[in-house]
Specification:
Number of helices: 5
CATH superfamily: Electron Transport, Fmn-binding Protein, Chain A
CATH architecture: Roll
Radius of gyration: 18 Å
Shape: globular
Strand content: 35-45%
CATH class: Mainly Beta
Helix content: 25-40%
Protein name: Pyridoxamine 5'-phosphate oxidase
Pfam families: Pyrid_ox_like
Number of domains: 1
Organism: Nocardioides mangrovicus
Number of strands: 8
Structural class: alpha+beta
Length: about 160
């Protein structure tokens, strides 16, 4: 697969799987993960999430900005290593705010307690099983089990 196609595959996977697991280092030095709704994905792979400024995760990211963002979809998995920063941008918050965000966070985009977590990606690795639907994957699994052949799929590491 060409580098451009692999890059496009990574961006598509991020955009299709709306919920990510954001993993970072907390104040005790432990790795912790939080489910986060992906609000925006730029073509360069920059990700945006909305969070409360006073949350532990935002405070932890200010001290330890290295993160991993992972996604799992139907037959696809993606791991993005990057650097997070906290961004105060009311206009961008207003652009990204929706009813889903409103259900989880108080105050709306004009509330100074709401901030963006912006993740600048370094590298991404994805795995994709043949097929796509669970039924197709199951059929392929049975076929490989009966034939003794290994399952085919894609695995690429992409610099973003």
């Amino acid at each position: 697969m060409s580098e451009e196609n692999a890059h496009d595959t990574v961006i598509d996977l991020m955009r299709q799987a709306h919920v990510a697991m954001l993993t970072h280092v907390d104040a005790t030095g432990s790795l912790v993960s939080h489910p986060m709704a992906t609000q925006d994905v730029d073509y360069d792979g920059t990700l945006r999430f909305i969070a409360r400024r006073s949350s532990d995760k935002v405070q932890d990211l200010l001290d330890h900005p290295a993160v991993n963002v992972s996604y799992a979809g139907s037959g696809s998995w993606l791991s993005v290593a990057g650097t997070a920063k906290i961004v105060n941008d009311e206009a961008k918050l207003a652009e990204l705010w929706d009813t889903f965000t409103d259900a989880w966070l108080e105050g709306g985009p004009e509330d100074p307690e709401n901030v963006l977590i912006e993740v600048e990606p370094g590298t991404a690795e994805y795995w994709s099983a043949p097929g796509g639907s669970k039924v197709t994957q199951l059929v392929n699994l049975v076929r490989t089990r009966l034939s003794g052949e290994r399952a085919e799929g894609e695995n690429e590491v992409v610099d973003l």
